[in-house]
Amino acid sequence: MFDKILVPIDTTHESSYKKALPLAAEEARHHGASLSVVTVIPDVEPVDAGRAEPAEEQRRLDAILKEHGPSDMQVEALVERGDSVHKTIRRKAEQLGCDLIVMNSHHPELKDYVLGSNASQIVHHAKCSVFVVR
């Protein structure tokens, strides 16, 4: 049923991958699907404020996958840069031809109801199925 699964994570928050990554790996095993994990470096102003370097972010992502990722399958580790986290995740899912996104969602705060959380935006606008883990 699923051929390509994408797991978006925030390397600075364990809660973004603690439940989602094992669930995605289980689904990948069950369906014989490939598994990709992506983290997004948001473009923000001013230029140096809050930006991680791609190589540093790749090291963090690789360390997370080594410790928490499945050891019995290949996992593609991707670092993307974009002006909007949810748009970048949706765009990457489309580029890879993913048919499932598995992601964590936090409990919404007031600002999320006004602006919309990344998970909410992905659920509403992704062209593939989305499994949200809490």
TrEMBL record:
Name the CDD domains for this protein: USP-like
Tell me the Pfam families matching this sequence.
Usp
| Residue stretches in coiled coil | none
Q: Residue ranges of the UspA domain?
A: 1-134
Q: Which PANTHER family match?
A: STRESS RESPONSE PROTEIN NHAX (PTHR46268), UNIVERSAL STRESS PROTEIN UP12 (PTHR46268:SF6)
- Give the family this protein belongs to, as stated in its UniProt record: Belongs to the universal stress protein A family.
Write the protein's name. Answer: UspA domain-containing protein
Q: Which organism is it from?
A: Rhodovibrio sodomensis
